[in-house]
Amino acid sequence: MKIVVDAFGGDNAPKEIVEGALLSLQKHDDLEIILCGDKLTLEKLLENRYANRVTIEHAPDIISNDDTPTEAIRKKDNSSLVKAFDILKNNDDVIALVSAGSTGAILTGAIMKIGRIKGISRPALAPILPTKLPNKDVLLIDSGANVDCKPINLQHFALMGSAYYSILYGVENPKVGLLSNGVEEHKGNELTKEAFPLLKSSPINFIGNVEAREYMSGNIDVMVAEGFAGNVLLKSSEGAVLAVLSLLKRSIKSHFLSKLGAIFMSKTFKELKNRIDVLGKHGGSPFLGCKKLVMKNHGSSNRNNIASSIEQAILLYNNKLIQKIEKAIEVTNANS
Amino acid sequence: MKIVVDAFGGDNAPKEIVEGALLSLQKHDDLEIILCGDKLTLEKLLENRYANRVTIEHAPDIISNDDTPTEAIRKKDNSSLVKAFDILKNNDDVIALVSAGSTGAILTGAIMKIGRIKGISRPALAPILPTKLPNKDVLLIDSGANVDCKPINLQHFALMGSAYYSILYGVENPKVGLLSNGVEEHKGNELTKEAFPLLKSSPINFIGNVEAREYMSGNIDVMVAEGFAGNVLLKSSEGAVLAVLSLLKRSIKSHFLSKLGAIFMSKTFKELKNRIDVLGKHGGSPFLGCKKLVMKNHGSSNRNNIASSIEQAILLYNNKLIQKIEKAIEVTNANS
Question: What are the helix (H) ranges across A170-277?
């Protein structure tokens, strides 16, 4: 199988992207990588390693965060990202695209070049977040790409999130909750009240309304949210975690005994840091609702993040994520 | 001046409520307290202390969290809370009501018995939250009472929140931000995009859109949010803080050196705990947009929380919070 990689997207491109791709070749004997980007630079970086399993697709242009996504996808035909999308689109044996480039351009490219799964009007990014339990993560869908959603969008988020979580963690019936301002069925705003019965009637393990406070409790697998609220959930948790760490640091610095204690506690602080960094574990997130696998990596991705993202793409492909989502949407639409 | 206290509302009623009221009498020579509740019980608790400055208003009934708020306010005439509302309503020299009882009943009573300030359709509760800076708090308005708001509601939240923060912290022009999913003016959902120009044209120090991640940064004084999103902000931050503390605790327990380190760090952990507990500092929150001061205390309030809440009511009264809000709404409505 083949995966196409945008070698010139991201803060650490192209070196870390290339090294990440090579790492994944080590692990998967049947994998081939297509690297999109400036040929000469890539050849130098590759130094002939894995020569028979790496193809370079020359693309001298780069899409940056300053480019308008739609413009860039339409006009920058020779950019590493557009080239990668064209390859994903035109080749059945290319199973996924991986990029750490501009989020806007990746999402726009996915919709314009690859297209949405039939019946889905709003694809979504679903980041993984840590919980307070050591080996338990939670998926948030949507995290901000889609604001002013309709109830049916939330139903699609639930179906896609459930299928994705199920494969990623090998869980049979992930617990799906609807973000609300109270647990009772009558709580919520107009949108969630209309979405509630749709989720209830869907072929998922719907556990009802969930308060924002509960999402890191470990009692829930998939949190469904309208994009604006989901964005608030994601960002405020990040902000709160950073604030606690900042308060801790400041206090440690100002007390001699605390400074000493912090040295003894280095293992704990390291554990905490690793636990909070879920991103590193999975590398990136697929753009759910798209016809093929488009993996969006964080701009700051290093080689390990890229390798994890490729790893994840293979897992999702082998477990037929796209087909499962297509099936779920089809069944639900037929029933409604 | 007189303040009426619902002596039978809250988990620690009546003892802690009574003791809290007496604490505030110690501090303010010109203060008189009216305690509502069962006469005999209150007399026993008072033991004749401050006899000339405490009046008991007999109210044998209690409103619990199980009562339907509207029903309770309408029918439980002899409850400590309804009695307190009647006293606040009928006496010009009673400047505020303090209760740690059922939130729903307090808010319903405030609207039904006291009424809204002219022009305000949706009063709001505005809790204070900690930031990562040691001496800087942030106000959130609305935190969940009002979902599916209109743009004008957000404008009112901004005006009320600004007036309240200004008095509470003695800050001339508090920085008011609008919760959104991006800082640029064009970011947001339909509601915030419509609210943005209203806030911009208001007589406040509007700093634009603010992401949820920033609200604990200390760079902002008043965060304006539609109730659903505000609730997510409040609850997810609580959840995230608790999750970090829980992960820390678990890790400390599992490493001997960390356990030792934690002992050295006890001062830091105590500081962190105090910093996070902003509630204790202010006791309660006023129900903003109401014609008189109605202070809602947390159900678990102890004597210090009650005393702080009374203290806050006196501060807000002396600095004419209600009149300032009335004025701001009048001016804004005249301009629109």
Answer: 190-200, 227-254, 256-264, 266-276
Q: What is the pLDDT of residues A243-284, one digit of tens each?
A: 888 888 888 888 888 888 888 788 888 888 887 776 566 788
In terms of Cα–Cα distance, which of B117, B111, B24 is closest to B314?
A: B24
Which residues from B are below 8 Å from A260, CB to CB?
261, 264
- Say if residue A14 is preceded by a cis peptide, omega within 30 of 0: yes
Average pLDDT taken over every residue of chain B: 92
How far, CA to CA in Å, does A278 sit from each of A128, A140, A305, B262?
Answer: 7, 13, 11, 25
Interface size, chain A vs chain B, as Cβ–Cβ contacts under 8 Å: 192
Name the amino acid, one letter, at B257.
L
- The region of weakest confidence among A108-112, A115-119, B155-159, B276-280 is B276-280
- The reported pTM is 0.88
- With CA atoms as reference, the chain A residue closest to B271 would be A251
Mutate to test the interface with A, among B220, B268, B269, B278 (most CBs of A within 10 A): B268
A144 contacts in chain B (CB < 8 Å): 181
Q: pLDDT tens digit string along B181-223?
A: 988 888 899 999 999 999 999 999 999 999 999 988 999 999 9
Domains in chain B, start-ordered, CATH in brackets? 2-120+289-320 (3.40.718.10), 125-237 (3.40.718.10)
Q: How many CA atoms lie within 13 A of A66 on its CB side?
A: 1
Tell me the CB-side half-sphere exposure of residue A40, using CA atoms within 13 A.
1
CA A36, distance to chain mean position in Å, is: 21
Write out the two tokens for A76: 């920058």
Sequence-distant (6+) residues with CB within 8 A of A284 are: A98, A100, A295, A296, A297, A298, A301, A305, A308, A309, A312
The reported pLDDT for the residue numbered B329 is 93
Own/partner pairs for A320-327, CB < 8 Å, 24+ apart? A321/A163, A321/A164, A321/A167, A321/A286, A321/A293, A322/A117, A322/A291, A322/A292, A322/A293, A324/A163, A324/A167, A325/A117, A325/A120, A325/A159, A325/A160, A325/A163, A325/A288, A325/A289, A326/A117, A326/A118
Distance between terminal CA atoms of chain B?
37
What digits encode the pLDDT tens for the residues A94-118?
999 999 999 889 999 999 999 999 9
